[in-house]
C-alpha cells in the first residue's frame, strides 16, 4: 500500500507552479491550471462581461446619433415654428376666399393714403389715341415713357388684334361683379407654401417674366390671367403659356416693340437687332394676337413716383415688374392679394426664388431697382388694408 504522506492540499500553488525558466529562454511556457494572482481578477473581464459592455457601448452610440435627429431637443424649434406659421397663413387665405368679395374695396382704402390720387384710374394697356385722351410722357425714355419710340409704337399697335383692355377685364365692380386679383411674385417665401389651390381660385392671376408654373403647381398655382414680361424675360418653353389668357409686353427699350411685332407677324428680326438683347429671346409665343397686349408706361411711371417717397435716391426709380403688377392690379380688381412678395435681406442664405436654389445674397448684384423702397411701399399698402399678404413676408 502506498502512503501519500508527502502530498498536501494546503498549498496547491507549490504543486502546480512550473519551474522557473532560464533568463535566455524565450519560449512561452504553457499555462496550467493556475489560479490568478491577487488583483488580476479585477483587471480581466470574462467573455460575458465583455459582450455586455460591447452591447452597452453600441446602444449608447446609436442613441447619441439617432435620438437628437428623431426627437428635437427644443420643442419650439424653427421647423415647428415654420409649420405653425404655414398653417396660420393657409387658414387665413382659405377664410378670405370663402368671404364675399367687396366691390370697390381697394379704391376706398387707397383714399386713406397720400399717394391714392396717383395710383387710381390709370389706363392699363396701350392703345391708339391714348396720348390724346390721357397724355403719355413721351419725353421720358422707356420704361417710364416712350420717347423716340413713335414709329415702333404705331407698328406694334397695328399688329395687335384688339389693343386696349380686353372685355374679360372690363367692368370692375359693375355688371361683371366683384373681381379678386392675386399677384404671384417669384420670392422664395412661396416655396413650400401649398397655396397653389388657393391661387387658382382668384378671378385674375398675374405673374411676371419666366416665373414657372409647370412643376410648381402645389405652391404657385396652375392658371395665369396676365403675364407681364419683357423680351429677355419671356418664358422659352411653350408649356409655360398653357392656361394663360394674356401676355403683356413691358417696354424697357424701343427695340422691345420690334420684338413684339415680330412675334405677332411671324416676321423674324434682323441679326443686327438680335445683338441688342442681353440674352436670347423667344421668337414664337403660342398665343393668338388677341391674347397679347402692351402695358401702358404710365403704370411704370406712377409706380416709380410712389416709390420715391420711400427712398433716399434722387434719380427716377425704375420699379420692378412685381411692384408695377401690383399697381396694375389696383386698376383691374376690387380686392388684391399678394403671394411670394418680400425679400428677406437679413438672411442672405435664404432662398431668393421659389423655383431655384439661388440665395438671397444674389439680390445685391442688381443696381437698377430699390427693393428696400418697394418693400416699404407694399408694406404700407398692406397695413392700410389695400392689399392682403398671403405669404406674410412684408
From TrEMBL:
The record lists the catalysed reaction(s) as: ganglioside GA1 (d18:1(4E)/18:0) + CMP-N-acetyl-beta-neuraminate = ganglioside GM1 (d18:1(4E)/18:0) + CMP + H(+); a beta-D-Gal-(1<->1')-ceramide + CMP-N-acetyl-beta-neuraminate = N-acetyl-alpha-neuraminosyl-(2->3)-beta-D-galactosyl-(1<->1')-ceramide + CMP + H(+); a beta-D-Gal-(1->4)-beta-D-Glc-(1<->1)-Cer(d18:1(4E)) + CMP-N-acetyl-beta-neuraminate = a ganglioside GM3 (d18:1(4E)) + CMP + H(+); ganglioside GA2 (d18:1(4E)/18:0) + CMP-N-acetyl-beta-neuraminate = ganglioside GM2 (d18:1(4E)/18:0) + CMP + H(+)
Listed transmembrane segments: 51-71
Q: Disordered: where is this region?
A: 1-25
Its protein name is: Lactosylceramide alpha-2,3-sialyltransferase
For this protein's source organism, the top of the classification is: Eukaryota, Metazoa, Chordata, Craniata, Vertebrata
Compartments annotated for it: namely: Golgi apparatus membrane
Its annotated function is as follows: Transfers the sialyl group (N-acetyl-alpha-neuraminyl or NeuAc) from CMP-NeuAc to the non-reducing terminal galactose (Gal) of glycosphingolipids forming gangliosides (important molecules involved in the regulation of multiple cellular processes, including cell proliferation and differentiation, apoptosis, embryogenesis, development, and oncogenesis).
The GO cellular component terms are: Golgi membrane
**What is the first-listed, main subcellular location in coarse terms?**
Golgi
MF terms from GO for this chain are:
exo-alpha-sialidase activity; lactosylceramide alpha-2,3-sialyltransferase activity
What Pfam family is a match for this entry? Glyco_transf_29
Q: What class of enzyme is it?
A: transferase
What family name appears in the similarity comment?
Belongs to the glycosyltransferase 29 family.
Question: Which InterPro entries is this protein grouped with?
Answer: Glyco_trans_29, Glycosyltransferase_29, GT29-like_sf
EC identifiers of the protein: 2.4.3.9
User: Which UniProt keywords are present, listed alphabetically?
Assistant: Disulfide bond, Glycoprotein, Glycosyltransferase, Golgi apparatus, Lipid metabolism, Membrane, Signal-anchor, Transferase, Transmembrane, Transmembrane helix
Bilayer disposition of the protein: Single-pass type II membrane protein
Please name the source species: Salmo trutta
Amino acid at each position: 500500500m502506498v502512503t501519500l504522506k508527502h502530498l498536501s492540499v494546503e498549498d496547491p500553488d507549490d504543486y502546480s507552479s512550473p519551474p522557473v525558466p532560464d533568463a535566455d529562454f524565450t519560449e512561452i511556457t504553457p499555462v496550467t491550471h493556475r489560479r490568478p494572482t491577487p488583483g488580476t481578477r479585477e483587471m480581466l473581464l470574462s467573455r460575458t462581461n465583455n459582450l455586455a459592455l460591447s452591447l452597452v457601448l453600441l446602444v449608447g452610440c446609436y442613441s447619441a446619433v439617432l435620438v437628437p435627429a428623431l426627437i428635437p431637443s427644443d420643442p419650439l424649434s424653427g421647423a415647428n415654428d415654420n409649420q405653425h406659421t404655414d398653417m396660420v397663413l393657409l387658414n387665413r387665405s382659405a377664410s378670405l376666399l370663402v368671404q364675399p368679395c367687396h366691390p370697390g374695396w381697394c379704391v376706398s382704402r387707397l383714399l386713406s393714403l397720400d399717394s391714392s390720387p396717383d395710383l387710381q384710374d390709370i389706363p392699363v394697356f396701350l392703345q391708339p389715341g391714348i396720348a390724346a385722351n390721357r397724355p403719355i410722357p413721351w419725353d421720358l425714355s422707356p420704361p417710364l415713357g416712350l420717347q423716340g419710340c413713335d414709329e415702333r409704337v404705331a407698328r406694334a399697335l397695328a399688329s395687335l388684334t384688339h389693343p386696349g383692355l380686353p372685355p374679360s377685364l372690363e367692368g370692375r365692380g359693375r355688371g361683371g361683379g366683384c373681381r379678386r386679383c392675386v399677384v404671384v411674385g417669384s420670392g422664395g417665401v412661396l416655396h413650400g407654401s401649398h397655396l397653389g389651390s388657393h391661387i387658382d381660385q382668384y378671378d385674375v392671376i398675374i405673374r411676371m417674366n419666366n416665373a414657372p408654373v409647370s412643376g410648381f403647381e402645389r405652391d404657385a398655382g396652375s392658371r395665369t390671367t396676365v403675364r407681364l414680361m419683357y423680351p429677355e424675360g419671356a418664358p422659352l418653353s411653350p408649356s409655360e403659356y398653357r392656361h394663360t389668357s394674356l401676355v403683356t409686353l413691358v417696354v424697357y427699350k424701343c427695340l422691345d416693340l420690334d420684338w413684339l411685332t415680330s412675334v405677332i407677324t411671324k416676321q423674324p428680326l434682323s441679326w443686327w437687332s438680335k445683338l441688342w438683347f442681353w440674352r436670347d429671346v423667344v421668337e414664337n409665343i403660342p398665343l393668338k394676337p388677341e391674347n397679347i397686349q402692351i402695358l401702358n408706361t404710365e403704370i411704370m411711371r406712377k409706380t416709380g413716383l410712389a416709390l420715391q417717397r420711400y427712398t433716399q435716391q434722387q434719380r427716377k426709380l425704375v420699379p420692378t415688374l412685381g411692384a408695377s403688377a401690383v399697381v396694375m392690379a389696383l386698376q383691374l380688381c376690387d380686392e388684391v392679394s399678394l403671394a411670394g412678395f418680400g425679400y428677406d435681406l437679413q438672411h442672405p442664405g435664404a432662398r431668393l426664388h421659389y423655383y431655384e436654389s439661388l440665395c438671397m445674397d444674389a439680390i445685391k448684384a442688381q443696381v437698377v431697382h430699390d427693393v428696400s423702397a418697394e418693400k416699404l411701399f407694399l408694406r404700407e399698402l398692406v397695413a392700410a388694408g389695400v392689399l392682403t399678404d398671403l405669404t406674410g413676408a412684408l
